[in-house]
Design brief:
Elements: H1 7-13, H2 18-22, H3 35-38, H4 53-74, H5 76-89, E1 95-97, H6 104-113, H7 124-137, E2 140-147, E3 158-163, E4 178-179, E5 182-184, E6 190-196, H8 208-211, E7 214-218, E8 222-226, H9 244-265, E9 268-272, H10 278-285, E10 287-290, E11 295-298, E12 303-304, E13 329-333, H11 341-357, H12 361-365, H13 373-412, E14 437-439, H14 448-461, H15 466-472, H16 477-493, H17 505-512, H18 516-526
Antiparallel strand pairs: 1-14, 2-3, 2-8, 4-5, 5-6, 6-7, 9-13, 10-11, 11-12
Helix pairs in contact: 4-5, 5-7, 9-11
Length: 529
């Protein structure tokens, strides 16, 4: 209830003694952060231990990674989550976009990228895909950049070798300044890594001492991409961590439902036989069997006939009729069906898993029922933002270090003719080509014609450039322009297209290589009569 103040009271509050009047009112906060008092009797509410994320990951990473790998290998939903991220984030490959007029560096890069993978991986695009999958399942992925001089199959003597998270020790500290296989300097930067020589889970004839052997690798030649959800984390956290419990629950529910269906499909019968009479029960109790002579005797030792026994009904074969003993009764066993809660339960668990891995439910389950094209576009845009975030981290942590090492080696190494494998264009240096922009496959268009029309409107209205639209579609604007010019020049040489009217004589000389006489002859033919 609102308190009413009189004019006289308001004047009194403005006096120096106003603090006396104000003190009569209770302005204490109705809510604060003293949750310990409010939840003192709630023992079911979990409370954080306050332990640093680095030590938590070091102690439990092995268990979480093993559970995550099992889920990705054996559970279809977990495998689909990883596959969807791979399909949309990497797809056919993330490629660099650089302003290279002579296109020599990109040509060299694409020839090298097709053969640069070590241990049978071959292409860099496959390495990108595997790195993203390892990043999602194991929380991180390592790549060693190996200098390989003398390799005839490599346009640039550089190879990329991927290592899973298990290859970096989780239980061994080498020095006081190390954290589980990583050596740090005084600024907290990694100086070197100590990887296992063999996978610790490799089963075979390896001795235990051999499995624990490590080798040192300088941090300058190691690429480390990881999922870091908290400040201070040195190792990655698997993407499936928060979904592992629900994945297990869903697996158990589906197994139980499958068993229910099997029991319901296999129609079973229960046969109720008539009970023995009182005389038969008394005779049966007074009779025992002698296995030596295989005869029955009474309690007085007299030989008697075999006592009555319950009749047995054999399972009938297909197409036959069963004969039920006198007084017998057959009942059918029909287990209850799952009812209407099955789909809703699976959907609720699927929503929890989708939220944990950051993928919309429609993309995770592949179920687009119940949504129209506008809702699909909204869901697709939401997922596209998440994918762009993953690409940003993957480009900064994985693609850029590999590209920079490739560019530096291409400029410093010499071929069989004694010349550098690549020389920067005039007026540019090697640093101008480091850390480029990256283009990736676009999200699929729901209505292609509408999308293209909206792009035209954006460009005409000045909200975007043609290069923006090309990058949005996962392509390199420089490449598109070069190929369009090349196609036009070939069509002009073949007589299929005229020379553009806005081309000057200088442009004709540059693009077509004509001399002054050829240009003058063309101008005379093109001149109006």
């Amino acid at each position: 209830m609102t308190e009413q103040f009189s004019t006289k009271g308001m004047i009194r509050l403005s006096a120096p003694e106003a603090h006396v009047a104000v003190a009569k009112h209770d302005f204490a906060a109705k809510m604060d952060y003293d949750f310990a008092r409010a939840t003192g009797d709630r023992t079911d509410i979990p409370k954080s231990s306050g332990e640093a994320i680095s030590s938590l990951l070091d102690r439990r990473r092995g268990d979480v990674v093993r559970m995550s790998r099992y889920a990705a290998r054996m559970n279809a939903i977990a495998a689909k989550a990883v596959a969807e991220l791979d399909n949309y984030a990497v797809g056919t490959g993330i490629q660099p976009s650089i302003p290279d007029d002579d296109n020599g560096l990109l040509d060299l890069f694409f020839r090298w990228a097709n053969v640069c993978g070590a241990e049978g991986i071959r292409s860099l695009w496959k390495a990108q895909s595997l790195a993203l999958r390892e990043r999602a399942i194991g929380g991180e992925c390592f790549a060693i950049l190996r200098y390989s001089p003398g390799r005839k199959d490599l346009p640039v003597p550089l190879r990329v070798q991927l290592l899973p998270t298990e290859m970096l020790p989780s239980e061994v500290s080498f020095l006081a300044t190390s954290t589980k296989g990583m050596i740090f300097d005084k600024y907290g930067d990694v100086q070197s890594y100590h990887f296992f020589k063999q996978h610790p889970g490799l089963k075979g004839e390896l001795l235990a001492s051999t499995r624990s052997e490590t080798f040192r690798q300088s941090a300058d030649t190691v690429v480390h991409t990881l999922i870091r959800n908290e400040v201070g984390a040195r190792r990655g956290e698997p993407l499936l961590t928060r979904a592992l419990t629900k994945i297990h629950d869903l697996h158990q529910f589906l197994d139980a439902e499958l068993l229910r269906k099997i029991l319901n499909a296999n129609i079973a019968y229960w046969l109720e036989m008539p009970d023995l009479t009182e005389e038969e029960k008394e005779q049966l109790a007074d009779t025992y069997y002698n296995p030596e002579d295989q005869k029955y005797y009474s309690s007085e030792g007299a030989e008697v006939s075999a006592p009555p026994s319950a009749e047995v009904l054999n399972a009938p074969k297909a197409g036959t009729v069963a004969k039920v003993p006198r007084g017998g009764k057959i009942t059918t066993s029909a287990p209850a069906d799952s009812g209407n809660s099955f789909e809703s339960f699976v959907r609720q668990v699927g929503m929890h898993i989708a939220a944990a891995v950051g993928i919309p439910l429609q993309f995770l389950l592949g179920d687009m029922s119940g949504i129209n094209d506008r809702l699909y576009k909204a869901v697709s845009l939401q997922f596209e933002r998440s994918v762009k975030t993953i690409r940003r981290d993957l480009n900064a942590e994985f693609n850029a270090p590999i590209w920079n090492a490739f560019v530096r080696l291409a400029a410093s190494e010499r071929g069989s003719d004694g010349k550098p494998l690549w020389t920067p264009p005039a007026g540019k240096t090697v640093e101008d080509f480091l850390n480029p922009a990256w283009t990736a496959p676009p999200f699929p268009n729901l209505h292609r014609a509408q999308e293209v029309s909206s792009w035209d409107d954006e460009v005409e209205s000045g909200f975007a450039t043609t290069s923006d639209i090309i990058r949005r579609q996962g392509d390199d604007p420089e490449r598109v322009r070069r190929e369009k010019l090349d196609d036009l020049k070939r069509d002009i040489d073949a007589g299929l297209e005229p020379i553009p009217a806005h081309w000057t004589d200088t442009a004709i000389k540059k693009h077509l290589g004509w001399d002054d006489a050829e240009i003058a002859s063309y101008r005379s033919l093109a001149a109006p009569a």
